[in-house]
Structures are given as C-alpha cells and as structure tokens.
Amino acid sequence: MKTISSKVVKKFITRSPSLLSSTASLTSIASFNVSNKAFPSSLLDDFSKFCYQRDLPRAMQALELMHAHCIWADCIAYSELIKCCLARRAIQHGKRVHVHLFSNGHVPKTFLINIVINMYVKFGLLQDAQDVFEKMPDRNVVSWTTMISAYSAAKLNDKALEFLVLMLREGVRPNMFTYSSVLRACDGLFNLRQLHCCIIKIGLDSDVFVRSALIDVYSRWGQLENALRVFDEMVTGDLVVWSSIIAGFAQNSDGDEALRLFKRMKRAGFLAQQPTLTSVLRACTGLALLELGRQVHVHVLKFKVRRNWECRGQKPRSIPALL
To answer: Which residue spans adopt a coiled-coil conformation according to this UniProt entry (predicted)?
Structure first.
C-alpha cells in the first residue's frame, strides 16, 4: 500500500479546477490502494488534457502526482508533453519527464524512447541522447537513424559512420533517411564509394533523398562526373534532385553546365524555387552575366510574390518562363 502526500494533493487540486469535483476521493487517498484501476481516472484524464493543451505547468504538476504513485499515462500524452518542452526550451522539465518514464523499473515502449532521444538531440545534448540509446532494450531503424542524423549534423562524422557499422552488425536495415544522413558524414571518397555500393545493393539508389544526398556529396568532393551520372540515372524527375545537381555545378564554378541544366529543368516543366534560383545567380556571378542575373532576380521577386499568394490561399498568377 502506497500513500500520497496531502501537500502534493492539495497543491495539485488547487491548481486543477477540473479535479475539484473529486476532492473527496483525493483527500482520502492516504488509504487508497494505488493501482491503475483504483487511482482516480480524472488524474490521468487531466494529465492528458494538459499535455494536449500545451499547459506545461499543470501537466508537470500532474506528472509529479503520477510519479509519486508509479502511474503512467499513454505514449501519445507523453509525446505531446515532450513537444511542449521542446517548444519552450524547457530542458529541466524534459529531463524530469525522462526520469519519470524510467522510474521504478518501468520501461517505456520503443516509440516513446525514440521521442526522448530525439528530445535530447534537439536540445543539443548528444551525450544524454546516447545514454538513453545505449540503455534501450530494443532499437529499431528510427533509433539508429536519429543518432546517426544527430552526429552527422554535429559534424561528428566518425561517430556517424561508426553507428552505421554497429547498426548493420545488429541486423537493422538502414532506410533512405539513414543513408541520406550518413552520406553527408562521409569524410573521404573511399567511404563515399563504399556507401554508394551499399545503397545500390539494397535498391535505395532510386530514392529522391538518397539520390540528392549522393549528388551533394560527390559535388562537395569535386566529383562532378559521378554527380552527373547519379543524376542521369534518374527515371522520373524531381525538383529536389534538379536543385542538387544545379547547385553542385554552381558551387564548383562550372556556371555553363549549371545554366544548361537549369534550362533543361525549365523545359521539363519544373518551376524553379528559391534554392535553385540561388544556385543560378551564383552561376551568373561566376560568368559575369549581368543581364541574365537581372532576369533571375526578377524571377526571384515573382517567386516571393507567388509564395505570398499561396500563403493567403489565393491562386498564383502565371509566371513567364525564364530563359
């Protein structure tokens, strides 16, 4: 038999109007058998409500009350609470949720542990994220991909590649998001070529995100022929891939090829967006094409107007084709 402090109950019900109606049952909780069935359902209901309403103070008060009696809510409610902690940069509150979830031998579902890991990653606390990851009883592709993406974004390339190797040894199959993240962590052509071979072997080379990442990394290493080969293998067009290949040539000071690809993209019926237009402007700068640069500038301004119309729910007017 476990009991709850009368001070905790008084503090919680005072700030939770919806629980005032159940004051009688809460004030006699000192002799209450604490189990999920016997515990007042209004507490869990209010906790979920506070989480969905993003009422962080009240949600945390309810969490403390639940924690004192080893009561756990559903995964979705905790997910909403963690989103609230992230939105408010409430690191200490997020850590408190983590402590509660793993208290008294309770092991959350893998789905929820992944959310906790992602929370620490977004807070920039990679060591905390890794500590949670290493204690997971079961890791799935989301668990591994979250850590690999975090290390790749933090420029900890060796760590990202190390985790990919460990992932494969555990028998977890990487997906397109795993490879698109780890590709950007490649610190040499040897690793890049090995990864490219693995991607082809498992059939992910046709994925838009993976193809775009391959083009980006080959371009970064000055391997424009390989980047163009990856691009030319594309069966169906995609604006993301077009933007990647144009940016690759523009960044490597090959303005002629960047503009040629831009013309091809326009003929294929794709409407240029901001990243693509930025690359074209860079190409114009390298080629000293002032007049063409002015035309692109006009196109950029029209693009911004079109986006404003779309945000207001209005139908955009037609934009004359450039070049």
So the answer is: none
- CB atoms under 10 Å from CB of 130, counted, come to 18
* Residue that the structure tokens 């975090």 belong to: 150
| Token pair in block for residue 264 | 């091809």
Residue whose C-alpha is closest to residue 236's, from 274, 196, 207 = 207
Rounded to 5°, the CA angle 183-187-192 comes to 45
Place of tokens 């945390």: 60
Residue (of 118, 126, 186, 198) closest to 157 by Cα position: 186
Nearest CA to 101 among 125, 127, 81? 81
Query: Tokens at residue 175, please?
Result: 């997906």
Q: Are 160 and 148 in contact (CB under 8 A)?
A: yes
Distance CA 169, CA 301 (A): 51
Nearest residue to 126 via CA among 89, 87, 152? 152
pLDDT digits (tens, 9 = 90+) for 284-300: 665 545 555 555 555 65
The single-letter code of the amino acid at 125 is L
Alpha carbon 50 to its chain centroid, in Å, reads: 24
Confidence of residue 303 (pLDDT cuts 50, 70, 90): low
d(CA 56, CA 297): 46
Q: Are 156 and 188 in contact (CB under 8 A)?
A: no
- Residue 267 has a CB neighbour count (10 Å cut-off) of 10
The token duo for 236 is 């169906």
Confidence of residue 86 (pLDDT cuts 50, 70, 90): very high
Segment holding 216, helix H or strand E: helix 208-220
| Distance from C-alpha of 160 to C-alpha of 58, rounded to nearest angstrom | 39
**DSSP letter (8 states) at residue 321:** P
Whole-model pTM: value is: 0.74
Please give the Cα distance from 206 to 268 (Å, whole number).
Answer: 19
